[in-house]
Specification:
alpha/beta, 4-stranded parallel sheet, two-stranded parallel sheet, 11 helices, Polyketide synthase dimerisation element domain-containing protein, NAD(P)-bd_dom_sf
Length: 312
Amino acid sequence: AAVARATELGATRFLELGPDASLVTAIEETCPDALVVPVLHRKQPEATSAVTALARLWTDGHAVDWSAFFAPLGGTLVDLPGHPFARDRYWMENPETARTPTAVDPVDAQLWDALERGDVELFAAELGVDAERPLRETLPALAARQRERRERAALERLCHQESWDPIVVPADRPAAGHWLLVEFAGDEWAEALAVELSTRGVTVSRLRVGVDELDRAVLAGRLAQFAEVDRVVSVLGRSEAAHPESAGVPVGLVATVVLVQALGDAGVDGPLWTVTSGAVSVGPGEAVTSPLAAGVWGLGRVVALEEPGRWG
């Protein structure tokens, strides 16, 4: 009744001041067209929730004193940089003598060179026709070649290629911080990584999980004791064994999904880095030896979009 009366008086926005979003659903059911914003949420840090609430009110048209908001940080308003226009000239400097160069596809260069030099044998060989055949039979072959080149060029414009640059880390480069290493028992990579990090000054905590522990609530309970770590490194994604309850889905992919969810539930803010090997090709001719682990890469792109602060 109170919410309905407030609406009658012209209220269109409701701001809940409390430890959680306990009234949001009730208000939304009473006033479907109203904006309901909780300042705090029990599953999010206070600062994140409060600033998110402020931003939602601002995007809905409510006036916000941003100068006061940024004053403690010393921030000031600045103009965005201008667009970097490409200032290229296309006017001919001397119209009397200038000529527009014609770009020739390297694949066709030899063909047109043979045509200009009158080399009948080479021209016929490039087209794949008999040099003695009449022009009436040669022209269709030339047209087919041009059509194939156009179709191939159109296809190439739709493709992209990833490039990889190896990073060499000096053996004596120090590191710091408190890292959590999440692993399945017996993973030799985890053991080697823990030793290497320790020699570089990193405080390493290790959490070994079993396939039977890949439950969000169970894993969150175990992760709660590591809330202060600076970084989480998972080698769970390396496992390509089939998950017993998810036919055709590797254990490594399921484990990574559960880990991402459980880290948020446990309040662990350290970014997550996940390790694979042979999941994708990073060089010409390199074989993909663990294709099932490529699913972790696809998952990582989704997590990076939905939880950018989570994905390392």
